Amino acid sequence: MDTKQLPRQLQSVQVMVRFGFRLAIMIGFAVFAGAGFGKGLVTLLWMSAVICAFAGIAQREMPFAANLNHWDEMTAYVALCALGTGIVQRL
Prior knowledge:
The chain has helices at 12-31, 37-58, 70-90. It is mostly helical. It starts with 11 loop residues before the first helix and ends with a helix.
């Protein structure tokens, strides 16, 4: 198979599945965090958002493309991080 025939962009469903798997792994690690579940999860979400931003830059993805990409995944991580921060500060 020629590499020119392979699609350069992932389908949106594949990106959502990737996001779900990464989120499940982060929740698993946050359960065993020494600082507590909430603070651990917020930290992991923040780090994932930064990594997704670097991946989006490295792969030269467009932020508002038709298909979901690393930028959309980063936005979801930032939103969950903000939500988690608000909940952790309330407790």
